[in-house]
Design a protein that fits this description.
By secondary structure, this protein is mostly helical. It has a domain of 35 residues. The protein is built from 4 helices and 2 strands, in the order ββαααα. Strands 1-2 form a two-stranded antiparallel sheet. A hairpin with a 5-residue loop joins strand 1 and strand 2. The model has no long low-confidence stretch (mean pLDDT 91).
């Protein structure tokens, strides 16, 4: 059976016979075991922790000069661009 991912890629799933052979191989591997529900709940999430204040994803068209300059400043350029826009708001925002 084939399934299509969100990106459009098509994957062939193992047949029931192939899946059975895979499971037998896993069961025979001394270095592999199935995690219990209790063990699974104890696992810690890997990766960046969820942000306290999330940002909104938008599409925006900026001049090439602005993007090139901020990108050239290295990693974190989008955060610095956001900070520059916030600074502009502080000086131009009218209540």
């Amino acid at each position: 059976m084939s399934v299509k991912s969100k990106s459009g890629r098509i994957f062939d799933l193992p047949t029931p016979e192939e899946e059975s052979a895979i499971q037998v191989g896993i069961a025979q591997d001394p270095d592999t075991y199935e995690v219990t529900d209790a063990e699974f709940r104890k696992l810690k999430r890997v990766g960046r922790p969820p942000a306290a204040a999330t940002k909104e994803r938008v599409t925006i068209r900026l001049s090439r000069e602005v993007v090139t300059t901020f990108r050239a400043s290295g990693p974190g350029w989008q955060t610095r661009l956001d900070a520059a826009l916030k600074e502009w708001l502080d000086t131009h925002h009218q209540s």
